[in-house]
Amino acid sequence: MIQLLITPVLKPIENVSDEEEAEDEEDGHSSQHEDGEGEEEDDEEDEDEDEKPGEYFAVEMTIEPDKKVEGRVWEPGEFILASEQIKSLGDLEEKEVGSVEEVLVWNGSEFGPDEEAKYPGAQRLKVTFAVKPGTTKAWLHYYSESLASLDLPRWQVSIKT
Length: 161
Known about the structure:
- With 161 residues, the protein is α+β, with helices and mostly antiparallel strands.
- It is 16% helix and 34% strand.
- The radius of gyration is 18 Å and the shape is globular.
């Protein structure tokens, strides 16, 4: 059984490292125009943003792979939320209600960045999912394997000032 702590959250802020910015500039993708104004995201990226769900939930959980798959690795970034349990990957496209937005891994004292990406055994995680607005129930899947049922609270984020 997976223990879950589900919390409504704001969309995680994307951290763009100095190294990634330098690579973009080398590739000719500067974020500044000649007139000094910031560059607008291109149409394709805008379309992707429009398609992304607007509610976000952080889910703290410990995943313990089945002993039958010992020695294999798994990736927390491959989790998917579906409206019901699915039996095949073909069903996923029409049943998907959420996807991974951010993965944080427990390092023994706090949650930090998911640097390894693949894990051979049990792992404590804090995964933020982008979820279709109004979703109240979802199934956590790793590909076609159903891991847990999630009862999502009403999405309301209080901002502390």
